C-alpha cells in the first residue's frame, strides 16, 4: 500500500448484491465466464469503433482478441482483452456502483427467488456481469489501461464491502480480470474452472458466436518420451450467426445467442431471421422474448436492437430501428452500406434506416399474426406479456394500425376465460347492433360489477373489458373497426331496446319524465358542484344510480393520467343517472314531493351520488364527509 493506493467502499446496494451472490447457492455458476467474455468482447468492439472515429488514436486493431489464462497451481483464471480499457474514474463508476442496473428491483427479486436456479437466472437477466465473478472466486483482481493513455489502474476486492484501487505506471492496453478461484465443490455445482475441457464447454455453449477469437494456451503431452508442448488454440468459431443461412443454424444456437444479447435465461418465444437485398442490404436476427422485462414500462428501460455495420458494432439500444411499442424485441441488425461514424441523430433522419425500420416492423407484426393463427397458445403468452405495450402502437403508428387491430385481443363478457379479437366480436354482434361496446377499468371484476354493465348484461350484449391504462387512449384515437364505432358503455345515453320495445315503453318513459322532472331539477342544483346534469337512466336495472360522461368527455382515468404527467385540465363534470325503478330513488321522489327540500334529503342525494362513484371505482371528493353522513344515517336505523 502506498500513496497511490486507496481503499474505497462499494455503493450500499452493490455491497448487498455482492453478499447475496457470495453467500447464496446457485445452480449454474458457469454464467460468470459468459459474462466476463461478453464484457471483453464489448471492449474490443468499442476500441475498433473508437479507432475509426478518432484517427489520432494510436492503437493497433489488427489482432483484437480475448485470452483466457489458467494457472492450475495458483488456481487462478484470467480473462484478458486488448480492447478499449478503462480509466480510474471509469473503474470506480462501473465496478464500485451498479446504480444504473435496476439494483433495487434486482435485490428484491433475488431475495424473493424461491429456489437456487431462479436466483442464478436473475443474474443473467440483469446482466450484472462482472459481479458474477464472485460466485466462483474468493477474490478478484482487475488490471486495465485505457487506449491512448500511458498509465493504468489495478482494482482488487474480496467482495466483502470494500475494494482497493491503485495507479500503475506500466500496464498493457485493455483489461484483464483475474479470479482467485474457490476450490471445486461438486455438491455446490462449483466446477474446476482451471480444467481445459470445462472452459472449452462453457465457451462453446455461451460464446461460440463472439466475433473475436477467444484464445487459450493448452498443454499437449509429448509422444514417445518427448516433452510436453504448449499450443495456442482458438475456442470459438467466430461466425456471425445472423450472416449464416437459417437452414445451417440449429435452434439451440439461436437460443444461446438470444440469451447473450438479451441477458435472459429463458428461450425466446419466436426467432425472426431476415435479409434485405437491393439498394440497401442488411441482415437482421430478431427475437420475441417469452416474458416481459421488469423495465418494459420504465422511461429508462432499454431497447433491444443492436446495430452493426459490416460486422462492426456501432451501438446498443438503437431506437431508430424499432418503434417504442416494440421495444421488447431483441436482436441484431447488420447494415452493409452505412457509415461507421453514424450517430443516433443521423440515424433518425437516414432514409435507408427508416426503410429498414418499416420492414422490420412489418415482419414482426406478420410474425405475431402467424402466431395468432397457427400457434394460439404461444400467441396468448405473447399477448399476456406484451399486449399492453403493443397497443401503444395504435395511438401513433397509423401505417400499421389495421394490422395492429387484427392482432389485438381483449377480455370480454362472452367468455370468462378466453380472450377475443375484434373480428370475433363483430361476428357475434346481435341483429341491429351497430356499435362495438367496451368498458375500461382497473380490473375485470370492477368492470363486471359496475352499474354501467347492467342493461348490457340484461339484454345479452357483449362488452369488451379493457383494463390497461393505454386502453383509455387508443380506443379514442382509433374510433372504429370494420365500419363500427367503438363505444364506451360509460358515455352518452344508452338505449338497447328494439324499435318495438321502444314503442311499447314510450308511454311509461314519458310518465316517468313527468313524475321525476321536479326531483331531477332539485338534485341538479344540490349536486351542481359535482355533476353537470341529473337525468333518468335507461342503462340501470338493479343499481339506484351511476355516473356517466358525455360522448366526448375525458374519462376519469384519462384525466388522472394527464394530471400525473403535469398537464392541468379543467374539472370535467359528469352526469348522474338515476334508476326510476329502484326503491331508493322512488322513495327519494316521494319524500321530496311530501316534504320538499331539506338538509336531510340533500344529504341523501349526496350519498346517492357518492355510492354511484364508488360503484364504478371512482374517488370521492370528500371521503370524510361521505363517511360521516353515512354513519349518521346508519345510527338512526339502530
TrEMBL record:
Keywords: ATP-binding, Chaperone, Cytoplasm, Nucleotide-binding, Stress response
Region (A): 1-344
Xref: Gene3D superfamilies: 3.30.230.80, 3.40.50.11260, Heat shock protein 90, C-terminal domain (1.20.120.790), Histidine kinase-like ATPase, C-terminal domain (3.30.565.10)
Region (C): 561-638
Record InterPro entries: HATPase_C_sf, HATPase_dom, Heat_shock_protein_90_CS, HSP90_C, Hsp90_fam, Hsp90_N, Ribosomal_Su5_D2-typ_SF
GO CC annotation terms, alphabetical: cytoplasm
Family annotation (Pfam families): HATPase_c_3, HSP90
UniProt: ATP binding residues: 35, 39, 81, 86, 100-102, 125-130, 175, 344
Annotated GO MF terms: ATP binding; ATP hydrolysis activity; ATP-dependent protein folding chaperone; unfolded protein binding
Location, primary (coarse class): cytoplasm
Localization per Swiss-Prot or TrEMBL: Cytoplasm
Annotated ranges, domain Histidine kinase/HSP90-like ATPase: 28-185
Biological function: Molecular chaperone. Has ATPase activity.
Subunit structure and binding partners: Homodimer.
Annotated protein name in UniProt: Chaperone protein HtpG
Gene behind this protein: htpG
Amino acid at each position: 500500500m502506498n500513496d497511490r493506493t486507496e481503499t474505497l467502499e462499494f455503493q450500499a446496494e452493490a455491497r448487498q448484491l455482492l453478499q447475496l451472490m457470495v453467500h447464496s447457492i446457485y445452480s449454474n455458476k458457469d454464467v460468470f465466464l459468459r459474462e466476463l467474455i461478453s464484457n471483453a468482447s464489448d471492449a474490443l468492439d468499442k476500441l475498433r469503433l473508437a479507432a475509426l472515429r478518432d484517427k489520432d488514436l494510436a492503437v493497433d486493431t489488427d489482432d483484437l482478441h480475448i485470452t483466457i489464462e489458467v494457472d492450475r497451481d495458483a488456481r487462478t483464471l484470467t480473462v484478458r482483452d486488448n480492447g478499449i480499457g478503462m480509466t480510474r474514474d471509469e473503474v470506480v463508476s462501473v465496478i464500485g456502483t451498479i446504480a444504473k442496473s435496476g439494483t433495487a428491483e434486482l435485490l428484491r427479486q433475488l431475495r424473493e427467488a424461491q429456489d437456487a436456479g431462479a436466483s442464478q437466472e436473475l443474474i443473467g437477466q440483469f446482466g450484472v456481469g462482472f459481479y458474477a465473478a464472485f460466485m466462483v472466486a474468493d477474490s478478484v483482481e482487475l488490471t486495465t489501461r485505457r487506449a491512448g493513455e500511458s498509465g493504468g489502474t489495478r482494482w482488487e476486492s474480496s467482495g466483502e464491502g470494500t475494494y482497493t484501487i491503485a495507479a500503475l505506471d506500466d500496464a498493457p492496453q485493455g483489461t484483464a480480470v483475474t479470479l482467485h478461484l474457490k476450490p471445486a465443490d461438486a455438491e455446490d455445482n462449483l466446477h474446476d474452472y482451471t480444467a481445459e475441457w470445462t472452459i472449452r464447454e462453457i465457451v462453446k455453449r455461451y460464446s461460440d458466436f463472439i466475433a473475436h477469437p477467444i484464445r487459450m494456451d493448452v498443454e499437449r503431452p509429448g509422444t514417445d518420451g518427448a516433452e510436453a508442448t504448449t499450443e495456442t488454440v482458438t475456442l470459438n468459431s467466430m461466425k456471425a450467426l445472423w450472416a449464416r443461412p437459417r437452414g445451417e443454424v440449429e435452434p439451440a444456437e439461436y437460443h444461446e445467442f438470444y440469451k447473450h444479447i438479451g441477458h435472459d435465461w429463458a428461450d425466446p418465444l419466436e426467432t425472426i431471421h431476415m435479409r434485405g437485398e437491393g439498394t440497401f442490404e442488411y441482415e437482421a436476427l430478431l427475437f420475441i422474448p417469452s416474458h416481459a422485462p421488469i423495465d418494459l414500462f420504465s422511461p429508462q428501460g432499454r431497447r433491444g436492437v443492436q446495430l452493426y455495420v459490416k460486422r462492426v458494432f456501432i451501438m446498443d439500444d438503437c431506437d431508430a430501428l424499432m418503434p417504442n411499442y416494440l421495444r421488447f424485441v431483441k436482436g441484431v441488425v447488420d447494415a452493409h452500406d452505412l457509415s461507421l461514424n453514424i450517430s443516433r441523430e443521423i440515424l433518425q433522419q437516414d432514409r435507408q434506416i427508416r426503410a429498414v425500420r418499416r420492414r422490420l416492423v412489418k415482419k414482426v407484426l406478420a410474425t405475431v399474426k402467424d402466431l395468432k393463427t397457427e400457434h394460439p397458445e404461444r400467441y396468448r403468452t405473447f399477448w399476456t406479456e406484451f399486449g399492453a405495450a403493443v397497443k401503444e402502437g395504435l395511438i401513433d403508428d397509423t401505417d400499421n394500425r389495421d394490422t395492429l387491430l387484427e392482432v389485438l385481443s381483449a377480455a370480454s363478457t362472452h367468455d370468462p376465460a378466453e380472450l377475443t379479437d375484434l373480428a370475433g366480436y363483430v361476428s357475434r354482434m346481435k341483429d341491429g347492433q351497430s356499435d362495438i361496446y367496451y368498458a375500461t377499468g382497473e380490473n375485470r371484476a370492477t368492470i363486471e360489477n359496475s352499474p354501467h354493465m347492467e342493461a348490457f348484461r340484461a339484454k345479452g350484449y357483449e362488452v369488451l373489458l379493457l383494463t390497461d391504462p393505454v386502453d383509455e387512449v387508443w380506443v379514442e384515437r382509433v374510433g372504429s373497426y370494420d365500419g363500427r364505432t367503438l363505444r364506451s358503455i360509460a358515455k352518452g345515453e344508452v338505449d338497447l331496446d328494439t324499435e318495438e320495445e321502444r314503442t311499447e315503453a314510450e308511454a311509461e318513459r314519458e310518465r316517468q319524465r313527468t313524475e321525476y322532472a321536479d326531483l331531477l331539477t332539485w338534485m341538479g342544483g344540490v349536486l351542481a358542484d359535482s355533476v353537470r346534469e341529473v337525468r333518468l337512466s335507461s342503462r340501470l336495472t338493479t343499481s339506484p344510480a351511476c355516473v356517466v360522461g358525455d360522448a366526448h368527455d375525458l374519462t376519469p382515468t384519462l384525466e388522472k393520467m394527464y394530471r400525473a404527467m403535469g398537464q392541468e385540465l379543467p374539472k370535467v363534470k359528469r352526469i348522474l343517472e338515476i334508476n326510476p325503478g329502484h326503491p331508493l330513488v322512488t322513495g327519494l321522489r316521494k319524500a321530496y314531493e311530501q316534504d320538499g327540500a331539506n338538509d336531510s334529503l340533500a344529504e341523501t342525494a349526496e350519498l346517492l351520488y357518492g355510492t354511484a362513484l364508488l360503484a364504478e371505482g371512482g374517488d370521492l371528493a370528500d371521503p370524510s364527509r361521505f363517511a360521516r353522513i353515512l354513519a349518521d344515517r346508519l345510527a338512526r336505523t339502530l
